[in-house]
Amino acid sequence: MSFSKLGLSAPLLQAITELGYETPTSIQAQSIPLILQGKDLLAAARTGTGKTAAFALPLLDKLSLKSSRRAKYCRALILTPTRELALQIEENINQYSQHLDIQTMSMVGGVKLEPQKERLIEGVDIVIATPGRLIDMVYQKAIRLEEVEMLVLDEADRMLDMGFIEDIRNILERLPQARQNLLISATLSENVRNLAKTFVHEPAEISISADNSEKVLVDQWLVTVDKSLKSSLLSHLILENQWQQSLIFIRTKHGAAKLVSQLEKRGIKADSIHGDRSQAMRNQVLADFKAGKITFLVSTDVSARGIDIEQLPRVINYDLPNGPDDYIHRIGRTGRAGAKGEAVSLVSYDDFRNLCAIESKLGHIIARKEFAEFMPRKVVPVSILNFVPKNAKTKVLGERERESRPPRPNKDRQGKSPYAGSASKNGGNPWGKWADK
Ligand code: AMP
Questions:
Q1: Residue 418 covered by a domain
Q2: Among the atoms of ligand 1, which is closest to the Cα of residue 337?
Q3: Ligand 1 center from residue 315 Cα (angstroms)
Q4: 108, 119, 229, 272: which one has the fewest Cβ atoms less than 10 Å from its Cβ?
Q5: Residues 217, 312: one domain?
Q6: Centroid of ligand 1 to alpha carbon of 378 (angstroms)
Q7: Is 437 exposed, middle or buried (0-12, 13-18, 19+ CB in 10 A)?
């Protein structure tokens, strides 16, 4: 299959050739002809499968057929859950549309309103927005949505998780009836389908399952370690293995800042990105990381989704995320578009419930590696693979809650940990020299 068979116009084919795309990914081969035909679409696909080009290329093709740019109106609206994802999509669309007369802008919070308003007055075709900022702009009469021809809801599952449902309804009410709708989501859960029913009409449905060739090629492994030794272990792994560019995920903003200084004390230069830093700073740090000027980037989940860093070799879970979907999104930052990647997790005893949930979802145990100096005193048992959280809410435990409720593995189902007892063999306190300062 080649791109030229999908019905895209010459300027788009030229742009994708210049980007080095040779063959369409599976979601692109399926979705592009359907979108060009004008069908609504419901697609289950994760980042890393080429989903952005899958909706953006036909969207650009259709918009470029006529030119009707008007101040304060837009013709295509792409809604995303995070600012980072909106900026990422804007960057991709600018690359794909470089030989077309199409104007694209991102409309995200955390930056001044005025430049965005001015840009709308100059006239844009495509707006990529986070819901909150878009609604602000609508209320301020800076943008009108009555001429939207195409709507894309990207990462719909994440939008719902982040509580954007009312904002989405509010936006949908302002759109004209006659338009094409595309909904993309990592999973087509019941909630996502219920949302889709409210605005997607007789959609074609596409599902890119994990068995497809775009399957993330990520070598996953973990080290069990006491919480107090995590930063020492991380420094050890980085220095011993001479690791280069790595994205390090951590649970809290405070933890991110602390880890940067702990790494720096050990001679490892790092920077951080989290919700307490200004949007301008987040953009700058991310751009520097993408350009290779920053080698180690410590991040909270603000960048778990959407961020596309070419040939990122490694993702490190300093803390496990609070759910398997976030784990999959995090490790999806590496091993993208067929490249190989590595995902390393540092797992302590209080991560056990999250580990069970993640390994249950993956359907397999993640390989463990041991490092003599870092054998945990609190052994992390082998997961219960059929672990199901009692209810969706209890799996998202707050820091304090997690501290006060240690995991209780079921002894009968758990099996014997191959690591059980190993820590006690070490005796004494061999961790002293590594303990976090
Ligand atoms: P996405 O899933 O949209 O985030 O895309 C993941 C990565 O794949 C991005 O770096 C894209 O530039 C790249 N990509 C998308 N489509 C193709 C393709 N057909 N061939 C090669 N790379 C692609």
A1: no
A2: 8
A3: 18
A4: 119
A5: yes
A6: 42
A7: exposed
pLDDT of residue 412: 33
Residue 356 near residue 287 (C-beta atoms within 8 A): no
Same domain, yes or no: 188 and 299: no
What's the whole-number mean pLDDT along residues 383-396?
49
The H or E element that residue 432 is part of is: none
Share of the chain above pLDDT 70, in %: 83
Helices (H), 37-76: 51-63
Tell me what percent of the residues of the chain surpass a pLDDT of 90. 56
Residue 421 falls inside a structural domain: no
Q: Which atom of ligand 1 is nearest to the CA of 3?
A: 19
User: What's the rounded Cα separation, in Å, for the pair 432 and 437?
Assistant: 11
Lowest mean per-residue pLDDT among 17-26, 155-164, 188-197, 295-304: 295-304
Q: Are 13 and 57 members of one domain?
A: yes
CATH code of the domain covering residue 325: 3.40.50.300
Cα separation of 434 and 436, whole Å? 6
**DSSP helix/strand/coil, 241:** helix
Give the domain range for residue 32. 3-207
**29 pLDDT above the threshold of 50:** yes
pTM of the model: 0.62
